[in-house]
Amino acid sequence: MELDYEYLARISKDAVLYTSRKTTNILDGGYNSVYRGKSLEFDDLKEYSQGDDITSIDWKSSSRTDKLLVRRYIAEKKHSVLIIGDTGAKMDADTPAGDYKADIALMSMGVIGYLLGRQGADVGFACSGNRGITNTPFRSGGQCVEALLRTYGASVFEDPSSDMNALIMNMLQSFPVRRMIIFVITDISGLKAVDNQTLSRMTERNDVYFICIDDAPVTGGRVYDRIGEEYIDRFLAGSRSLRKAEEAERNNILTRFKTDALRNRVVLERVQTASGVVDTVLNLFERGRSGIFG
Q1: Are strands 230-231 and 207-213 parallel, antiparallel or unpaired?
Q2: How many CB atoms lie within 10 A of CB 290?
Q3: What are phi and psi of 49, to 5 degrees?
Q4: DSSP at 88
Q5: How far apart are CA 290 and CA 287, in angstroms?
Q6: What SS3 class is residue 252?
Q7: Model confidence over 36-76: pLDDT tens digits?
Q8: What digits encode the pLDDT tens for the residues 90-111?
Q9: Which residues pair with 271 in a beta bridge?
Q10: Is 170 exposed, middle or buried (0-12, 13-18, 19+ CB in 10 A)?
Q11: Cβ(215)–Cβ(272) under 8 Å?
Q12: Residue 22: in which H helix or E strand, if any?
């Protein structure tokens, strides 16, 4: 399937429409509290954790509570938002709800770009394609969102062997100093590829959010395998033991990733429908602001 400009324009318009209907004060007027930086504007206190700046320890408050507390400040500078999108034939597939994974991936980008663009953030994008890694410069404004959608749409079905872990590490090496808010749009195989060491590197300087697009099961019905480009054998598709093994594998991947995400202060949300993308993105910010990780 080739994604044309009209299709991408509709995705962008739908993102704006859904967001206008559902946006709450999670971001409006309160977005600064999501992003932590070092400025003169004090925000709150939190308990010290490994990696925090020891010069920010509030000794007076710590002595009153018998806990080591660290001062947090609201960042003054413009936010840099990096969206990393998964690609490959696996995106040309359905979710358990019957929605198209590519639609949800593009809608996720549109919603993130629109919401953060309204806050004046600079948004960049990266994905893997047939010609290597595509990496757009950080820009702001409504036209920037449409340009990012066109870039993602042109590559979303490319590079079936895309390695999400390698892509993320490449982006971290490309921006060794810049502090960012990173969104990763992927699926269960993408979560499987990203290891704890990579999550640790991501969160050294950045706020990190993952959106996992759920895959339709390969068992339980007449299923077409997009990777192998053939229908799955009826006997295998109807196997109860195979279905249990598939569910167990997915649960193991999710459990491992959530454990690593909690350890590294990463927020994960899953989505199955295009209409649920806005709530998913807003939930990401609400959980990040409330310190609910994993």
Answers
A1: unpaired
A2: 9
A3: -135, 160
A4: S
A5: 5
A6: helix
A7: 444 445 556 777 766 566 777 888 878 888 888 877 655 44
A8: 898 889 998 999 999 998 998 8
A9: 213
A10: middle
A11: no
A12: helix 5-22
Of 128, 91, 106, 127, nearest in space to 216 by CA:
91
Q: Using an 8 Å Cβ cutoff, are 122 and 138 in contact?
A: yes
Q: How far is the C-alpha of 27 from the C-alpha of 285, rounded, in Å?
A: 8
Residue 139 CA to residue 147 CA, distance in Å, equals 10
Q: Are 35 and 181 in contact (CB under 8 A)?
A: yes
Calpha distance 40→101 (Å, rounded)? 43
Polymer length of the chain: 294
216 phi and psi angles, rounded to 5 deg: -65, 145
Distance CA 55, CA 104 (A): 43
* Bridge partner residues of 73 (DSSP): 37
pLDDT on residue 182: 94
Torsion over CA of 275, 22, 144 and 173, rounded to 10 degrees? -80
On the 0-12 / 13-18 / 19+ scale of CB atoms within 10 A, 256 is middle
As a whole number of angstroms, the distance between CA 259 and CA 187 comes to: 17
Pairing outcome for strands 266-271 and 181-187: unpaired
Q: Which residues pair with 184 in a beta bridge?
A: 84, 210
203 token code pair: 């969160």
pTM of the model: 0.77
Amino acid at 210: F
Does residue 177 sit in helix, strand or coil?
coil
